[in-house]
Each structure stands twice: as C-alpha cells, then as structure tokens.
Amino acid sequence: MWCPATPSPVDMRRFRQSTRDEAGAGPSLPCGRCRPRPYSAVLVPRGRPVTGSLQMRRSGIRIKRSFRPWLATRCAGQTVCRRCRLMRLCLSLFLLLWSVHPLLASAAEKHPITPEDIATLDHVDTPRIAPDGQTVVYTLRRPVAGSAKPGPARLWQTVTGPNPQPRPLAHSRDGDNNPRWSPGSDRLAFLRAGSRSDDDKTSAKSGDQQIWIAAPLSAPPQRLTALAGSVTDFRWSPDGNRIAAIVHLAADNPDATDKPAPADAPDGHDVLYMVDAHDGKAHRVAGDDGRFVFDVAWGPEGKRLLVRYADTNTPQAYWYTSHVAVLALDSGPWTPLPHHATAVHPSFSPDGRQVVYGYFQADGITAVVAVHDLDKNNNTVLGANWPGNLRSVRWNQDGQTLTALAFSNMTPQFAQVDASTGRVREGLAFKGDPFDFSRTDNGGLAYVASTRVEPAQVWFKPREDSPHRLTHVNSEVANWRTANVRRVHWQSRDGQYTIHGMLVTPADGTSGPYKTLVEIHGGPYESWYDGWQGSWVNWGQVLASHGYAVLLPNPRGSAGRSPAFALANRHDWGGADFQDILTGVHALAERGVIDIDRVAIGGWSYGGFMSAWAATQDDPFKAAIVGAGISDLQSMALSSDVGLSFMGPYFGDPSRHHAEYAARSPINFVNDVHMPVLILHGEADTRVPFFQGRMLHRALAHDTDQPSALIGYPKAPHWFGHSVGASYRADIQQRVLDWLNRYLDDDDATGH
Question: Which of 3, 289, 454, 734 is surrounded by the fewest CB atoms within 10 Å?
C-alpha cells in the first residue's frame, strides 16, 4: 500500500506528458508548486542489475536513477506543501526500517552459547612463518561433535599480505603436525604418522612419526626419514643441509638402549639423530650414554648443538630437572650450563658466543630467562626487575637484543630485551594466552591471539606495520550471545597487593547483581588472561550466556607479576591467597555485581584444590565444583608424575613436614563442608591421580549429608585440552551449568 501522499493517476498522466516537453516545465501536482527531481530513490530487489545504482550491502537497497514522482518530488516554492511533507516522512521511515531490518534480524538470531558450541570450536596453533615472510603454515584442528576422540588436525597455509587466503596445505592428511621451514623458505618439513606402504622394507613402524618434506608446497610431500622410532621434534641446520631429529625409541624396539630404566619411567628412550636433509640418511649423535633428549638447537656455524636433556624421561625430569648443554659435533664433549632448565627453547646468539635459555631459581617455583656468556661463563638475567614473565625469546639479527613473548598482568606482548643489561622495553600488547611465536628474517612475527568476543586466530605483525589477522575460523561466533568482559581489581585484605582479575557478565542489558561463579585457575603459578573466556576449562562465556557472572581472580601466587607475588603463597595454600579471592567477591558484591546470596566456586587442578578448600570454610559460597583437584597434599606429593619437584618447593619434604601438609589438605576438614560438591576428574590423570577425587567423594558421602557427585572420564589425562574429544569437553561444561542451576537458582533468592 502506497503512502497517502502518492499522486493520483491524473497527476501521473500529467507528469508523463511533462517529461516529453522539451522545456521540462514539470507536472502540475495538487499543490501547484511541485516539480519532479532528476534523481529519485526506489526499492529494487537485491540481485536485479540496475545501471548507475548504489547498493547498500546490509539491506539490499539500491538507489536508481528515475523520474517516478511518488518518490521524487520537491516543492518549487519556499513552503513545502503538506502532501510533500507527509510523502517525505513516509519515505524516510520506510527506507530507515528497510535498512536496519537485517541488523534487527541479526540481533534476534543471536542465541545462548551451549557447551557443545564451545567444545566444537576450531583451534589454530603453531603458526610457522617462512623466513622470507611470504607464507604461514599452521595447524587447524576441527573437533567432531559428540565424539570422545580428539578431532583431526591438518596443516593449513596462507599468505601474509593484506588479503590472506587460508586454505588446506596441498596433500595434507589428518594428524600432520609440527611444520618447520628450511632456512631458504623453499622447503617445508613436518611430521606424519601411519604412512608406511605394504612394500616398505624399512624398519619404520606404521604408527611412528617420520619427517616429510614438501617442496614446493603444492607438490606431494616425500618422506625423508625411515627411522626405527617415532620423531617427536626436529630442527633444520643453518645451511639447510641437515636436520637434527629427536626420536623416541619404544622399549620393545631392538634399537633402544638396554640400560635399566627407573621404575616409574615411561617405556623407551629419547635420542638424537643427525639426518641428511636431501637423502634421509641418519646416524645417532646423542642418547647412547643414558641421556634422554628433550630439545635441540643449532649453533650458527653448524658445528655445535644446544641440547636439553635429563637422565630419565619422566614428566618430572622434563619440567623440573633437565639441563642444557653445549655439544660439539666434531669432538663430542658436553658442556652443561648452570641450573635446572625450564622448557623455554634455548638458542645461540648470531655470533655463537652467547646462549639464551630458561632455568629455575633456587626457590624451585619461579624461573628466569638468562643470557649465558660462553667465554666469561656468567649469566645475565633478562627482565630481573620487570613485573612479568618471558615465555619465549628469539635473538635479533644485531646479536645485541632479543624479541620476547612476554606476559605481564594478564596481557601478552612482544617486548625488546637488551642482552647485555637484561632491560625489557615493552612493545605490542594484544590479547590471548600464547606461549610461542615464529619470526621472519627481517623481524616479522606470526602468532596466535584472541579478543574478548572471538576465539584465537593467527595474526601477522610486519616489522614496520600494524598487525593484521590471517585466519577467520569460527565465524559462527558472530551469532552467539557473547558476554561482556572487563578487567577488575581490588585491594587485598592485608593491604599488601592490588589483586587483578577478569569479570565476565551477561550481555543482556542487565546490570546485576548476578548469581556468580568464582573460577580459580590452575598452577598456582599460572594466570587468567585478557581475551576470549571460553573453553573446556574456562566456563565464562557459557555461564554468562545463561545469566551468570564469572569472576576470574589472580590471587597471590599467580604468574605475570613480581617474583615476590609468585612466592607469596608458599606454605600458605588456602590462606592469604584464599583471602584475596574472598576480598574480591565482597568488593564486587558492594559494587552491585555479585549477588552475595548466590555465589559458587570452581576450578581445575590448583583451582580444584582451592574449591575443595573453600567448601570446608564459611560463607559466602553455596556450591563447589572440584575439577581434578588435590584433596590430600601429602599423598599428592608422593604419587604425582611430577613428584616432589612440584609440591616440595611449596611445603618441603612431605615425610618431614607431615603436619604442614595435613593442615592444608581439604580431606582433613570434610566434616566442615556445608555445601553441595561436584567432582570432575580424568581417570587416566597422573598429575593429580584420580584417587584424589575418589577419596574426597567417599569422605563427603560418609561424613556429611551434603549432596556430592563424582564424574570420572575414562582414559582422560589431567589436562584434557585436545587429548580428548568434544563430547568430554562439552560434558564438563554442561555438568557445571546444571550444578549451578540446581543449587544457585533458588526461587527465594534475589537477583538474576
């Protein structure tokens, strides 16, 4: 139906007649003062070709050259007639509604986030940029909804220019991983398993990973190695002619060492091979003497290696008791560097006279990254007075500075570090929780970063320009009802520290107070970060989408601050760190964010311990969720796969400090539990063994009348990550949501 100001048929005939008049006097409309405009706006169906039109992408409106008077009249006089004013008003309103209706529809289509939504998000990782800076190859994992098995991962590639075009790497297969470019950017090596043909007479088993090379990327890759074992990592030599490969030899492999292994060691041995990068011929260079090799790096001249190793390959050795040594390939002596090394990748300076590596401080908890001068045999700690951690470092071409992936107070950034003084100069800050990056010859950076409203993507930062995104995975997130995310802080009860955290709240227009989950991170020497708050172990987005606020605090003992802050909870788990959490809850309740009558606590690993501990304390918590938590500290210290290296620095020798361990063990205070407790635990957990959760559940059932449940996940390790399928990750989040709905959704309570 047309606007009431639509000209009558008589007016139309007059208008058509006037357009044939060479003088172009125009029609005589009812007001007698209107004439046609030479251009007018008409609605044209989307997709219909119209010459000289302007299309509005969102609404499908196009502006067409026309002489239709019912949409294109103007008054010739000074005063616009009533009919023209009404016509213009109707037209304006109609065009406005038509242009915004896609936006309204888009808002209406946004739906609450489900646990399966989070569990089936695509995951990008290990972005490796070619030295010439032209191409990035990365891993893309796509979980399968409802599957308990990990989703398949494949290699993808994209150019780094302003118009990236991500696509699968030609001939990539499920399971391909760990891509590494040759120094000349002309070959890409990666690991592939299960590719042995029936007529293959080599000693390589069908399930072992071997090195494959694609040259060029579009060509079918060729297998380089056929080693008796599975390649776990490798590095190109500076000239691109050799590859140093770390190989795991299974215990039943006749090529494995016959040295008796420690009783708690995994089967097999980890040795180092030197591989010809052209014909695949290989020989062993390390591992025959009982050393287990974890990492390797080349010297600039190609005659020396940096090797991180230990006398066993247990997780405790990998994380806490390994060493870094310089290995001369021609003569074979090992020159160890001081201190127990961390997992930070070591590397030589461009002139080969210095080494950068990570090692533990004497406290056994905090760690540093340092430059070791091989001539002077001394260390320069990097960022000694900087309040944060250096997660990964790369030498710059000048040999005087390094680029570091640094983390400070919930924010990752790329910093420049002076090798001689250790001074840190802060640089590009971004969001997310990355632990590594790759770099071009001229300083361009490829890395993974997220935002508060979007999961992680691959990004590229040219040396002189601003960063830009290279991937666009998980486009469905645009249709989700994502949460509001912001930083919060409060003063500790003792006034010693400012405590920081992230706050996730519903994006439904409400302002609180909200029913709330306080979620505690693992570690304790870890940290929540600013960025996307949604995963199997971070329940912020799912819960906020269903009306909850989620507080993610970083109490004393967390990473990303000073060493003193990191050590502030030694001998005091559940003490001042717990008070930091409580102070934050009450501070946000006073600000009208948290409904103090409907607050729960939850977390994984150390967060599970803190939740179990909170369940034994007084208000304000009304429910607890214990994910892979420690219930008895002494048995944890004596049974964990990281052994005394983890618990010892916090509480000392468990045999000599029994009382101190007992005083901080939730299992000893079960009688004080006055809230429902949900326990979630992987049955194959060797870090915090499954019996820790079973003990707590049985004690609760025997000594209290509070509801409790133990959910075990078969074959699941401590850190689920991508070791399990989407069904497990979704199940965890669904059970958390159901538990909170059951015990915080009290009809008599106030709030949301």
Answer: 289
pLDDT at residue 255 is higher than 60: no
Task: Reply yes or no on whether the pLDDT at 283 is more than 50.
Answer: yes
Question: 46 is written with which tokens?
Answer: 């989307």
Domains plus CATH for the chain? 9-109 (no CATH), 481-744 (3.40.50.1820)
Comparing 98-112, 205-219, 241-255, 589-603, the range with the smallest average pLDDT is 98-112
CA distances from 628 to 204, 310, 359, 638, 734 (A): 37, 28, 28, 17, 16
Name every residue whose Cβ is closer than 8 Å to that of residue 608 and which is 6 or more positions away in sequence. 626, 627, 628, 629, 630, 688
SS3 432: coil
Closest CA to 338 of 319, 361, 318: 361
CA distances, 450 to each of 49, 182, 218, 389 (Å): 40, 29, 30, 19
CA neighbours closer than 13 Å in the CB half-sphere of residue 206: 5
Q: Quick check: 129 and 439 in contact, CB under 8 A? A: yes
Residue 480 pLDDT greater than 50, yes or no: yes
Query: Are the C-beta atoms of residues 467 and 460 closer than 8 Å to each other?
Result: yes
The CA-CA-CA angle for residues 313, 316, 322, to 5°, reads: 65
626 φ/ψ angles, rounded to the nearest 5 degrees: -105, 100
- Contact of 497 with 556, CB cutoff 8 Å: yes
- The two structure tokens encoding residue 90: 């109707």
Is the distance from CB of 641 to CB of 605 less than 8 angstroms?
no
Read off the amino acid at residue 421. Answer: T
Q: Helix, strand, coil shares of the chain as percentages rounded to 5?
A: 20, 30, 50
Would strands 454-461 and 445-451 be described as parallel, antiparallel, or unpaired? Answer: antiparallel
Chain mean pLDDT for the chain: 87
Q: How many CB atoms lie within 10 A of CB 80?
A: 16
Whole-structure pTM value: 0.84
Among positive and negative, which fits the CA dihedral 15, 21, 26, 28? negative
Whether residue 617 contacts residue 628, with contact meaning beta carbons closer than 8 Å, is answered with no
Nearest to 633 by CA among 619, 615, 651, 614: 651
In percent, the amount of the chain with pLDDT more than 90 equals: 76
